[in-house]
Design a protein that fits this description.
One of its GO terms (molecular function) is protein dimerization activity. With 157 residues, this protein is mostly helical. The chain has helices at residues 21-30, 40-57, 60-83, 86-92, 100-106, 112-124, 140-144, 148-151; strands at 98-99, 128-132, 135-138. A 3-stranded antiparallel β-sheet has the order 1-3-2.
């Protein structure tokens, strides 16, 4: 059986055409989602383990950057998105992948460069997906913000 070449898009393969331990770990982690579990209890256990993994992997500097710089900016990006009714307009338009220009048509009150920064920040924090450069896709989380029970809490940030 020929060796399978696996690359992570950043570090490539290990020079032998075989997946490295690192590549296997990354592939396993990227393959996990909410449907990977038999019940909600297992899913919650996995979330708890993932938080613990982040704590073990993060340097103090990573923690400070995430907490002090990333989280407040995420709250601001969510508030702006809600004020623009971005999630509602996108949901009404069908929740599909959209380019920046298509999203700009949904929320024309915002400058394109600012909208781009907000969308990229939401994607970096997994609120949206960015399957390719300048193309964005809602996640289950962003779609949930169209429901008052989930979307309303953003107004209290």
């Amino acid at each position: 059986m020929p060796a399978q070449t696996i690359t992570n898009g950043v570090n490539g393969v290990n020079g032998h055409g075989l997946a490295s331990k690192h590549d296997n770990i990354i592939q396993t982690l990227n393959g996990i989602n909410a449907d990977s579990f038999e019940n909600d209890g297992q899913r919650i256990e996995a979330v708890t383990a993932a938080y613990a993994l982040v704590a073990r992997l993060e340097t103090p500097w990573d923690f400070v950057l995430r907490l002090v710089m990333g989280q407040p900016a995420l709250g601001a990006a969510l508030k702006v998105a809600m004020d623009l009714q971005l999630f509602h307009e996108w949901h009404t338009a069908g929740d599909g992948e959209k380019t920046l220009a298509q999203i700009q048509e949904l929320v024309p009150k915002i400058e394109t460069k600012l909208l781009s920064r907000i969308l990229r920040h939401l994607a970096a924090n997994h609120v949206l997906e960015e399957p390719s450069a300048g193309v964005f896709k809602p996640t289950a989380l962003s779609v949930s913000f169209t429901k008052p029970v989930f979307g309303e809490w953003i107004n209290h940030l």
